[in-house]
Specification:
The chain is an alpha+beta fold. Among the domains are: 2-38; 635-758, no CATH class. Helix 19 (378-397) runs antiparallel to helix 39 (909-919), helix 24 crosses helix 26 and helix 25 (564-570) packs parallel to helix 36. The radius of gyration is 36 Å and the shape is globular. The N and C termini lie far apart (116 Å).
Length: 953
């Protein structure tokens, strides 16, 4: 009995508590041993990782120099305000940012703002994506939303995809379309919740849980907007978003303010202890010494800007940091991005809870990019740009065309020019007007939303109406700037100037009479004309039995005895019509003979053989369009392509060349049934397949073709309610519908289109530089250089060499021959004499500019219509084109100029003269001391030198 009582006493409550406590302590000690011993390495690595930060050290881009060592693109040191994410900086984020924003505002420094979700003056969010096309902007918008998780929202809005795990490409396309439906305001409200911005209200744990689980995006926005303005909320959102986007590439600081004032950086340094996570970094910024005051060579140099989110994957693979790195977006900056880009270095450091560096772990040295030395001479470049600008302004505001009795209301706002070394292909000047200030584009603080919109998203509604009013046009904005399927207005007729469009390399223009030296060369080399050839340009329009009833008019009467030299001097169309026809007859008078001019043009770089597998190019390093000369296959393809639009317009208008008929319904419409779409397509294919298969100036089987239209028209009436209703209305008016009138109109259309394709009419037009001929001004200059240098076509190039940071030459670019053509010295002499007469003879088309210039020059003017039928109605006029070379006996340089809507070619001759005065300055001052320059800036350039002693000359 006693033993039992003792046992009960041992198992009392006190002892039980002791046992439980022992067990708890054993568990705690075991856990500590596990964490401190067995998991020591894992948690040490984790703690070190969270305490580590990589502080990037950006490498300066390589510099860009002109041919004399003047710096066209440089770097300067800037101070940036950064934020590093740590426990403390996250905890006090909003308090810190409020202090930061106040300091920035007080100092008038700008917060960095690359965020594509903007707020307008009415407090409404909107997207601001830059790009040359609506598709580009859509791609950027999709990427923007996907990067921020909105694709999950879009997926939940699509019932069939809501619970689907594995998505096909088609599913992703559906999600993308749904993403585009999410407007800017909904996106903004979504991000307020996505970035838990209700934390700014210091909510309790329960309130925070409610915001997270029960409040909608709109409800959270309403709560926040009661205390903060939408613009203030966006300022916090910009930083939150930058942190999120930066997190994809590791623990690195984000930039809050770029290029703050130096004094501001000192103030922030003094207050760092009160601003957890905030620091000052120093890095190089791209700068363009001649951009702000002169916009010098902006089309050549280009600019740098942030990486589009739509190109994220491509650049991440190359090692770019999308959140901070800038890339070349145009010109040399873009073409030589891999050369100019330096190798970014940086330091890996340990930081404390406030984000301050406590220890430097290791460092990777950065290395600057390599330097690009251009062939451009800044003084010649300035002379050309300034004169081009002045001449365009003169044509737009003062010039009166006495011949057409047209006053100074020309839309002369765009143009381009090139100065090319005739025997090397080196570009001494390349101008595109208007240009732009690359310093504004490359500095986030300068590129305000207003400037960005002006440059990248112009208001065509406003600008279009201003254009209509200025030029007194009987048109609407919808006529001149129609909306595409997405509702975005397009500059259909290229009416407004585009600063970022390089008119020199990308613009394709009809050369007009500047093509005549090429026609002269072909005619002389083929022997169909020579020095003794005379034509009679005094008897009205040009006709030829092989042209049937087609006639071609001349701009003036040039006499009964026009030889090749006079033809070039006075720009006699009649002479070149005849030359074109003689080439056609000499080479067989068939389809092959229609390429009589083309085979010479191709050798001179004016287009290339459509059957060739090589891509046409002048060789210039920056982006270019390469235009095509008239040839049979190209002309046929173009005629058939554009003929479809002409046919649809004519048949839907119910009138073609005076033939009236019931309006057809053959244009494609989104709401057409599948049957109707097929009927319309079959109808159009029937017509154009006939044209495509007819390879003769005469129409074979035309009667059978016309009969075949009846069943197609009947089927169209059956399937198209629009057309059948029109027929019904026509019959109700007391008339009787018949297919006959429509057939007659289509038959006339067929004859007209076939004449464009299979007769020498287009060859005749091409002989004077009209028709389908379209080239860049670079092509035009290079073809003239090829002729006047004796037949060697050089690759056009802008870059002389590449050097490293020490000045050592890494790569050198020598003149490169692309082709040679054997030109008879006699023939070359005739062409040069004619071009010299154009500049010096009393009747020469450019003699008013060059007659008294002491250095002998040659030239050729060209006035090429934009569209003779509609140009006056839409505010367009002829392209003014001018080409020249000097000295004419042994040409060193060639100049080519185009002024869009420039009225006449001779008006651009002053641009060439300014180039000559600058290029030949020393020679003119030495050999012709009494010569007074026409332009004050050609002998005394106002553009200062900006050189470095270390630059290799």
């Amino acid at each position: 009995m006693k033993e039992k009582k003792a046992k009960i006493k041992f198992l009392n409550r006190f002892n039980a508590i002791i046992v439980i406590m022992l067990i708890i302590f054993i568990c705690i000690i075991s856990r500590l041993i596990y964490l401190q011993v067995f998991k020591y390495d894992d948690y040490t690595d984790k703690a070190n990782t969270q305490a580590r930060r990589f502080l990037p050290e950006k490498a300066p881009r390589g510099k860009i120099y002109d041919s004399s060592g003047n710096i066209l693109a440089d770097n300067k040191t800037v101070y940036n305000l950064t934020f590093t994410t740590t426990d403390d900086s996250s905890k006090y984020f909003y308090d810190t940012m409020k202090k930061v924003f106040k300091l920035l505002d007080d100092r008038k420094d700008e917060q960095q703002d690359n965020f594509n979700l903007k707020i307008d003056n009415n407090g409404k969010p909107y997207f601001d994506f830059s790009g040359n096309s609506d598709d580009t902007k859509k791609a950027q918008e999709i990427r923007f939303k996907r990067d921020r998780g909105l694709n999950d929202v879009a997926k939940r809005n699509i019932p069939e995809l809501k619970n689907k795990q594995e998505l096909t490409d088609g599913d992703e396309d559906k999600i993308n379309q749904e993403l585009l439906k999410i407007n800017a305001e909904d996106t903004f409200n979504y991000l307020l919740k996505f970035y838990t911005m209700y934390d700014i209200l210091n909510p309790t744990a329960k309130e925070k849980q409610n915001y997270k689980q029960y409040y909608t995006n709109k409800e959270i926005a309403d709560v926040l907007l009661k205390k903060y303005s939408i613009k203030d909320l966006r300022r916090f959102m910009i930083v939150k978003d930058a942190i999120k986007m930066q997190s994809y590439s590791g623990f690195k600081p984000v930039t809050i303010a770029y290029n703050i004032q130096k004094d501001s950086s000192y103030i922030f340094y003094q207050k760092l202890s009160d601003l957890p996570g905030i620091d000052i970094s120093v890095e190089p910024m791209r700068t363009y010494p001649y951009a702000t005051n002169y916009n010098l060579a902006s089309g050549v140099i280009g600019y740098v800007s942030s990486i589009d989110s739509s190109k994220k994957d491509r650049y991440e693979e190359k090692g770019y940091d999308l959140s901070t790195d800038l890339i070349g977006k145009a010109g040399i900056e873009s073409a030589f991005e891999s050369v100019l880009k330096g190798n970014t270095g940086g330091t890996t450091v340990k930081v404390n809870s406030q984000g301050r560096k406590t220890e430097e772990l290791f460092k990777n040295e950065s290395s600057p990019g390599e330097n690009v030395h251009l062939t451009i001479n800044k003084n010649i470049q300035y002379s050309v740009e300034q004169t081009l600008k002045d001449r365009l302004n003169y044509v737009a505001t003062q010039y009166v065309d006495l011949q057409d009795n047209k006053k100074s209301n020309f839309n002369a706002t765009r143009g381009a020019a090139i100065v090319l070394e005739a025997k090397t292909g080196r570009v001494l000047a390349l101008a595109s007007y208007p240009g732009y200030d690359a310093n504004i584009i490359s500095d986030p603080n300068e590129l305000t939303p207003e400037i960005s919109k002006q440059y990248f998203s112009p208001d065509y509604d406003k600008l279009g109406q201003e254009f209509i009013n200025k030029h007194h046009l009987n048109k609407t904005v919808d006529d001149l700037f129609p909306k595409d399927k997405s509702g975005v207005r397009q500059d259909k007729y290229d009416l407004l100037p585009k600063p970022f469009y390089n008119y020199a390399t990308m613009g394709l223009i009809p050369p007009g009479s500047t093509f005549k030296p090429l026609t002269s060369l072909a005619g002389l080399q083929e022997g169909v004309i020579d020095s003794g050839t005379r034509v009679n340009d005094a008897n009205g329009p040009y006709t030829n039995k092989l042209l049937g009833t087609q006639q071609f008019h001349d701009d003036g009467v040039h006499g009964t005895s026009v030889d090749i030299k006079k033809a070039l001097a006075v720009s006699c169309n009649f002479f070149y019509y005849e030359t074109g026809m003689r080439l056609y007859e000499k080479n067989g008078g068939n389809i092959t003979a229609l390429d009589s001019l083309a085979k010479y043009a191709w050798q001179l770089g004016m287009g290339n053989d459509p059957n060739s597998k090589t891509k046409g190019s002048t060789g210039i390093e920056i982006g270019e369009s390469f235009g095509q000369t008239y040839n049979y296959q190209y002309n046929k393809d173009q005629t058939l392509m554009y003929g479809r639009f002409d046919l649809v317009n004519a048949l839907e208008a119910g009138n073609y060349e005076g033939r009236s008929f019931v309006q057809l319904d053959i244009g494609n419409k989104d709401d057409d049934s599948d049957e109707l779409k097929a009927t319309k397509q079959k109808f159009k294919d029937y017509i154009f397949d006939y044209l495509k298969n007819n390879n003769s100036s005469s129409l074979t089987g035309v009667n059978q073709f016309i009969k075949g239209l009846d069943p197609l028209l009947d089927q169209l009436q059956k399937d198209s309610k629009v057309f059948s209703d029109r027929v019904k209305k026509y019959n109700e008016s007391g008339k009787k519908y018949s297919n006959a009138n429509v057939r007659a109109a289509i038959e006339q259309f067929i004859y007209n289109e076939n004449a464009l394709i299979n007769t020498p009419a287009q060859l005749v037009l091409a002989s004077i530089g009209q028709g389908v001929n379209n080239f860049s001004i670079v092509q035009v200059a290079n073809y003239i250089a090829t002729i006047v240098n004796g037949g060697t076509r050089y690759k056009v190039h802008l870059v002389d060499k590449i050097t490293d940071s020490t000045g050592a030459v890494v790569q050198e670019f020598k003149p490169e021959v692309l082709n040679k053509i054997d030109i008879s010295p006699t023939n070359l002499s005739l062409i040069k004499q004619g071009m010299e007469m154009a500049n010096t003879d009393d009747l020469g088309t450019a003699s008013s500019v060059f007659k008294n210039f002491p250095i002998p020059t040659g030239g050729k003017t060209g006035t090429a219509t934009y569209n003779e039928q509609i140009q006056d109605q839409i505010g367009r006029s002829a392209y003014g084109v001018y080409i020249s070379c000097a000295p004419i006996n042994d040409p060193e340089i060639v100049v080519a100029v185009v002024m869009y809507d420039g009225a006449h070619g001779f008006l651009g001759a002053d641009v060439a003269k300014a180039a000559y005065e600058t290029y030949f300055k020393d020679r003119l001052q030495k050999d012709y001391p009494n010569y007074q320059p026409t332009f004050s800036y050609t002998f005394n350039s106002p553009v200062p030198d900006k050189k470095e002693d270390t630059v290799n000359k």
